[in-house]
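User: Reviewer 2 asked us to show a designed sequence for the structure in our supplementary figure. I'm pasting the structure tokens here. Could you produce the per-position amino acids so we can include them in the response letter?
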């Protein structure tokens, strides 16, 4: 028999955010309201929800400190109005002469529960594309974050973090049964790796993975992959957002985490070995 705290509905918001903060806030709010109206209890938005700027130092001229920023408070109030849990996938927050790529988790009471700063900076050279240097404008976080939801613990991450499995292992061994990966994957890397990496993180940890994404052609010339994904602990895709902005929903049964971890108890089998 199902307990009411085992089952809930998750809603992922997919966007094509621009460099106009006010427009992005309006777009995100409309999609969050749609997700809530369709029964979502936990709604998640993508990385860089309010301002899409890959790695330009000019981003710091358009943002402010967390104390002065009003956008996250807008979404906190929206969570309270709609009586939902809301993960603001990330926004840029000024920290000294750089920015932090920061997620915010809000409760149905409209309170900020936790925030998380992206740990791994996307500094890469992709064939046929301009170099990406996230560290030019953003400073890396240095702390993993886990939080309690009514249905269990959730571990937070952002985009490029996805390529570092030890982070998710640590979160899962600390009790996380859900892992969040708001992202803005490039089209090239997304097409090659997005589904595979997210499935791997779900399977190897026996955890749900919720990955709301940016998708489409952005004003700065960058193209992101989209395909917001909801994946269960056995690696099954429960929802795929495709390429266009919208809402992706799925029913989540957290008992499936225990089932998967009982079938393959790899979280208890890690060994420290010397090279």
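Assistant: Here is a per-position design you can include in the supplement:
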């Amino acid at each position: 028999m199902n307990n009411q705290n085992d089952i809930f509905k998750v809603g992922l918001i997919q966007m094509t955010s621009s460099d106009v903060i006010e427009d992005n806030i309006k777009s995100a709010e409309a999609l969050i309201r749609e997700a809530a109206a369709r029964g979502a209890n936990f709604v998640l938005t993508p990385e860089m929800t309010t301002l899409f700027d890959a790695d330009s130092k000019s981003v710091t001229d358009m943002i402010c400190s967390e104390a002065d920023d009003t956008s996250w408070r807008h979404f906190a109030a929206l969570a309270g109005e709609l009586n939902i849990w809301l993960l603001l996938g990330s926004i840029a927050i000024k920290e000294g002469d750089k920015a932090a790529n920061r997620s915010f988790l809000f409760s149905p009471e409209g309170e900020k529960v936790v925030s998380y700063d992206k740990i791994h900076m996307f500094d890469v050279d992709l064939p046929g594309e301009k170099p990406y240097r996230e560290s030019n404008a953003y400073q890396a976080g240095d702390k993993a974050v886990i939080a309690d939801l009514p249905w269990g613990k959730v571990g937070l991450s952002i985009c490029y973090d996805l390529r570092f499995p030890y982070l998710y292992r640590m979160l899962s061994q600390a009790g996380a049964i859900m892992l969040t990966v708001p992202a803005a994957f490039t089209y090239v890397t997304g097409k090659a790796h997005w589904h595979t990496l997210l499935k791997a993180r779900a399977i190897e940890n026996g955890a749900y993975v919720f990955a709301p994404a940016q998708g489409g052609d952005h004003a700065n010339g960058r193209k992101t992959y989209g395909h917001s994904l909801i994946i269960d602990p056995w690696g099954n895709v429960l929802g795929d957002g495709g390429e266009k902005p919208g809402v992706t929903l799925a029913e989540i049964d957290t008992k499936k985490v225990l089932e998967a971890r009982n079938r393959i108890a790899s979280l208890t089998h890690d060994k420290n070995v010397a090279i």
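For the response letter, you might also mention the following. The domain at 7-268 is CATH 3.60.110.10 (Nitrilase/N-carbamoyl-D-aminoacid amidohydrolase). The first helix runs from residue 21 to 37.
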